Amino acid sequence: MTEPVLRLEAVRKSFGGTLVLRDVDLEVAPHTVTALIGASGSGKSTLLRCVNLLEEIDDGAVFLDGDEITDPRTDADLVRRRIGVVFQAYNLFPHMTVLENVTLAPRRVHRAGKERARERALELLARLGLQDKADAYPDRLSGGQQQRVAIVRALAVEPRLLLLDEITAALDPELVGEVLAVVRDLKDQGMTMVIATHEMGFAREVADQVCFLDGGAVLERGTPEEVFGEPRRARTQAFLARVLEAGRPVGRPTV
Amino acid sequence: MSNDSEVNDSEVDTDNAEAIGDRAGESARAPYRPSARRIERERYRKARTRRSVLIATASTLVTAVVLYLLVTGSPGWPRTRETFFNAHYAREALPEVLKGLWLNIRLLVVCGALVLVLGLVLAVARTLRGPVFFPVRALATAYVDFFRGLPLIICLLGVIFGVPALRLTGVTSDPVVLGGAALVLTYSAYVAEVFRAGIETVHPSQRAAARSLGLTNAQAMRYVVLPQAVRRVVPPLLNDLVSLQKDTGLVSIGGVVDAVYAAQIITGKSFNYTPYVVAGLVFVALTIPMTRLTDWVTARMNSRQGAI
Fold first, then answer.
1. The complex's ipTM?
2. Least packed by Cβ within 10 Å: which of B57, B189, B213, B264?
């Protein structure tokens, strides 16, 4: 069996007295997509932040390509260079143009030449239909465009692993489609991704592995067919039923 | 007259409305004609605006007249006018005041630049994390606490008269240099706090985004946090620079002649206070363009970035 890109071993994390992640185990194989589903506050975002070392874990270990990255002796900056993150609120830098946002890390972190970084950025922007926005400032773009820029920014450093944290949660339904289409393309190109999402239809379609988190623990995991089709746990069934009621179909996505 | 202009205005409005309609792709349909409702609303708004302008003009005039009568009607007015608004002394004082002002301007430029640099360094030093930086952080905090609390005049006296008293070889006793140093000491403490406030207004998610791209803490500060922080604190920074500009006059306690001291010398000879008024107006004239310039720079940055 090939070595997983990402492996979590009994990861535990608490904020103050609240246990947010309780002994989470997870394995993400190369070129696969893992969807994390669960209610708000179930620990999805925290899990992603821990993987990217934006939060320090209390116990357990995280391995990236077999190397333990949660060892305090590892260089966190080196680890983050191998992981791309896209946030729910885009977090673009408002004082920089789209092109500057995208080329910042390649130029300052990876020491790419100005021209080289620019070419590569324009190429990526064109792939996501943003070529004419290169010189615009983020606040002039729609939410969907901003989120696609954020994805390009994360891709520009050629990450080993891409973490997507509820990237469509702040978008209106019409714009959700354009962002999800991008993620679908990335999957086809073999990008390894972990996606925290509320878009059940999308998770079902695109994920190779679905994890249902509840109260900081992985309550159920399996293929989309297993988790969505025949959930074993009562909690999972209840969650999926509530989502259905709220009008987010578990079947095919609407886009 | 007024009827004419009104007709013209509404014609212009109609044209605009049509232009907007065209852009929205409505040209294929019947050309847009503003409805009676819209015309009525616009007429009402115009009438309201005219009324507000009239009221403002009237109240300004009334206030001005009342103030004028109050001042000129006061029993001591002829004497006051002679002492504070004397054209002869104003003419005599202006060249001297301007000569003194040159010193204020030089001090402002040099000290202003040093204050901005030192203030920024102090602010960044206070935001450093990690136990290694504890001494740096503690020193910066102590510096800001001390010099922000110390009255400027005491600081000036201490530096201008205290440093030469040490009789250190190679250290200047020039009151301009020493006074300037004292101004930098005090003002950099103020400005450091302004910068620090700016740094803290940048949302943590910006730093998180920068770090997740692999930027080091220092790079995140340099490329992401500081550029945004500095933009936000331009107005309060200008406030401190204007304040500094006025306080440059205090170096005259070391015996050098600036604009205020030049005025004082003439007043001392003539017992006429007009030179003070001249000096005051010259300072005001200097700050107004500075304010307009920063307003313009800020507005330009904001319009480039879109709505904020």
1. 0.85
2. B57
